[in-house]
Amino acid sequence: MTRIAVAGAGAFGTALAVALCETRDVALWGRDAPAMSAMAQSRVNPRLPGVSLPAALPVTADPDALSDAEVVLLATPAQTLRAFLDDHAPALGGKPLVACGKGIDLRTLDGPSATIRRALPSALPLVLTGPSFAADIARGLPTALTLACADRTEGARLQALLATPALRLYRTTDLVGAELGGALKNVIAIACGACLGGGFGESARAALLTRGFAEMQRLALRLGARSDTLMGLSGLGDLVLTATSEGSRNYRYGLSLGRSEPFDAAVTVEGAATARAAARLGGTLGLDLPVTEAVAELVEGRTNVGTALQRLLDRPLRAEQDSAD
Ligand SMILES: NC(=O)c1ccc[n+]([C@@H]2O[C@H](COP(=O)([O-])OP(=O)(O)OC[C@H]3O[C@@H](n4cnc5c(N)ncnc54)[C@H](O)[C@@H]3O)[C@@H](O)[C@H]2O)c1
Ligand SMILES: O=P(O)(O)OC[C@H](O)CO
To answer: Which residues does the annotation say bind NADPH (predicted)?
Structure first.
């Protein structure tokens, strides 16, 4: 049986490992040996409360779990992906590596697939993304995701390997579109949370979601994505989930910004760094990304939600579609 390793024992890596181990040979690898040993004993991950780890799932900090695997799912946060790949290059080279994180590297402005290509040119990058809360996947609730791979044959093979009866995978060859949809929806979810948290109402939230989606498409298409990918699970689908649910950390972070409340810095909020990365990309490419820029300024503490929203309202009136006159 194909051996799968999930690298990164946070909420999402653990959820994927729990879902896959029902039918596959899976190991869950985490970098923190004492934490992994505690998890092996208690069969609980504090980052995924209420979920019992099946007895059949090995949880380990032993790097052999990575070397022994034929396929590795990378479930570490986007800003840590490059360091993880560099640290474990000999174990990962030449393998299909499935990026499960959602973000743009703030240092390089690369998405996960380019990060993999640069760090490990011999590996085959894939992207697994779409609307999914870790707790839902771990509980076996129905979920549909996008699996992107430039190689059609390998994409179809990995699709069959990683799908489960409850986790339905659609495949695409559009890596850039899939990963940018997942990364950029977090930025817009922060904007939507900030809007609601600041008391500006659900109509304003719908406007931000829609105009934010226009920005996601504007940037992604310029970077080589296909429009239909952005319209699918990895773009619109994930945006709808993340920008409307308090199950999302990005949305909750936005709520806290809107309410001027503190937010726990230990919680993974991918959209914060990605807003800054996307704003830089937009600046370099000369793109109009006002919502993204507003989120970047909010995250950096250079504006507040009321001022940012007023600036959006004060912009010159324009056609709704980029293509319209
Ligand atoms: N939680 C979800 O519902 C969910 C769903 C879909 C996608 N994702 C994505 O998955 C990624 C991880 O999110 P999460 O929810 O698991 O976060 P998390 O905060 O629960 O866990 C992150 C894990 O990454 C580990 N880690 C950090 N740096 C590392 C490194 N250099 N090497 C190895 N491990 C490292 C941490 O120890 C921690 O266990 C994010 O990009 C997120 O957007 C999360
Ligand atoms: O909790 P968030 O905001 O990181 O969102 C989790 C997933 O990306 C939703 O698809």
So the answer is: 12, 31, 102, 134, 249, 270
